[in-house]
Amino acid sequence: xxxxxxxxxxxxxxxxxxxxxxxxxxxxxxxxxxxxxxxxxxxxxxxxxxxxxxxxxxxxxxxxxxxxxxxxxxxxxxxxxxxxxxxxxxxxxxxxxxxxxxxxxxxxxxxxxxxxxxxxxxxxxxxxxxxxxxxxxxxxxxxxxxxxxxxxxxxxxxxxxxxxxxxxxxxxxxxxxxxxxxxxxxxxxxxxxxxxxxxxxxxxxxxxxxxxxxxxxxxxxxxxxxxxxxxxxxxxxxxxxxxxxxxxxxxxxxxxxxxxxxxxxxxxxxxxxxxxxxxxxxxxxxxxxxxxxxxxxxxxxxxxxxxxxxxxxxxxxxxxxxxxxxxxxxxxxxxxxxxxxxxxxxxxxxxxxxxxxxxxxxxxxxxxxxxxxxxxxxxxxxxxxxxxxxxxxxxxxxxxxxxxxxxxxxxxxxxxxxxxxxxxxxxxxxxxxxxxxxxxxxxxxxxxxxxxxxxxxxxxxxx
Length: 463
Known about the structure:
Helix content: over 70%
InterPro entries: MFS, MFS_dom, MFS_Na/Anion_cotransporter, MFS_trans_sf, Sugar_P_transporter
CATH class of the largest domain: Mainly Alpha
Number of domains: 2
Structural class: mainly alpha
CATH topology of the largest domain: Growth Hormone, Chain: A
Membrane topology: Multi-pass membrane protein
GO molecular function, one term: transmembrane transporter activity
Number of strands: 0
Pfam families: MFS_1 (PF07690)
Transmembrane segments: 52-71, 78-97, 103-124, 145-167, 173-194, 243-262, 282-306, 318-337, 343-364, 376-398, 404-425
């Protein structure tokens, strides 16, 4: 009897994750493209702009654990759809603050950016949760890299467009455009996303392939059987796990690089390098395009190492460490004057950051299946503290020194700390097993880290 050919519904799901993450990051980047013109129109200084940039991060961090809990309690489809609609509505409203008095405009913009951050909180834990359910272990690195690389694709696609809109029509219009786009997409999401066992287009062959190779297709079974959601004691177990603490620190530093590019980078091009906002929009897209290439390549390389028999630890850490070392190249911009060299070093740095941005693959590999959403939310909480600190610290550095030179050193140092964290603190990468009963000074279980920082070869950590 001929075997039934597998459907490929999981790739449709991945496409949806890529598109929603593109919209997500384009909404975050609106403020960076509009920032220089908005600062000029409303007449506030670099420190104030830094605080406006950080508003998103305050709420995004505060919303991570509640957002993850909601995902585990009510499922990814509904919670994510509400999230998309809500953040898009608040993005749309930002387009109407320009006519206010300066003090009101600054306060209102801060609050709307804050609300966008809170509404977006379930997005990346939701992505990691959906990937863990829909993809086998050996495909998870690529899947995670594809949705994560959408952050670079968003800048590459939308930065030139938004720069042109600001130049032609004014900064307010970028918020209106992105808000309308997101509201429309929330309806498409509801029509497309399902759990693996509920999708009308999946066949048994694909479902069995996913389930037998590590996909958590039963992730929502506890929710449907009447569970009241994850226990908050689980957070303590995650926070006392050395591997996860190292991953959290690494993600904080990686996001420090991300939020430099999402907030201050276009301002750097305009104010430090003397480019027009139109030119800055196009130039900003070049590093982002290479970041996208690096992001996809990192996942493909990681999964290729895994399929060749290397450990999960080596397969994840090698691209991370290599990419982050490349990202320190941005510091060399302090020693060159030619625009093409500045763009070249920033492009190399963004490519490296993309190559090393496998944190969400690590989350999908390590999260306990009972609390995949909560685990991703906790990871994103620590990572996105950088969305608060990075814009503010850079704002103060610029205010104190009058240039971006030490700001670039600060961002490059984040990459080195992340390398240290993955090589020294993380140890072996494997799925965490929670203890349901009382523990005696212990934490969620995982094996002791091996002596080698990249882990043993020839074996795969249990998943």
